[in-house]
Amino acid sequence: MEIIILDTPEEVGLLAADVMARYVEQGATLGLATGSTPVGAYRELVRRHKEEGLSFANCRAFLLDEYIGLGPDHPQSYHATIRRELTDHIDIEDALVQSPNGLDPRHAHDYDRAITAAGGIDVQLLGVGTDGHIGFNEPGSSLASGTRVKTLHPRTIQDNARFFDSIDDVPHHVVTQGLATIGRARHLLLLATGIVKAEAVEALCEGPVSALCPASVLQYHPHATVIVDQQAASQLENAEYYRYAFQCKPEWQEI
Fold first, then answer.
1. Of the candidates 54, 107, 205, 211, which lies 20 to 30 Å from 92 by C-alpha distance?
2. Which of 44, 66, 79, 138 is the catalytic position?
3. Which residues of the chain have pLDDT under 70?
4. What's the total number of domains in the chain?
């Protein structure tokens, strides 16, 4: 696992866009996340599409998760969110931007089959929750889990209430890619910014691999990149080494 510490959230977004753009140019299958952290990267990708001709026409995409009970037209569904933040502004075919079905979660496992049928995900963008969750794999999730229904932890509901009119409007259940599903992506790219993510970043990077911190499963992955800002890195014991290793990276070695 490569850990890259940058000064600001803006730098995190720019470097993430650099990595994603390399895959876009190859016509890759993208794994997309929603939430606040990826927004900077998405804005930069949209800019490169509009101003530099970066084309997504040969790409397809799969979302990590979806709220149960929210239809695709609901403004806080992830189906609608990813279109508002990214895919409506680029040249990817809309039908090739797939997400779990929050209105019929009984067939959640079919989502894994769809990903496999598409040849798997080349690069999966991830955020991390304050409790260490990725996707909506809350603490206690099986490290071998596939796409399935999960109940949200009250802390996650509280964290996500900012996107809704009221905390009472936040759904309590989701369909999420499982940790094993996420782990089958060829490259995992996790972003974290802000002091509120510092504890989770320390646990996922330097703590034991444990269901108590689902994101720690990235330690098992052969190609995982964690990009964080100074605040999110503030509890890392080996922060100076990570900075040194990144500065000394050979020019030919890609992230």
1. 107
2. 138
3. none
4. 1
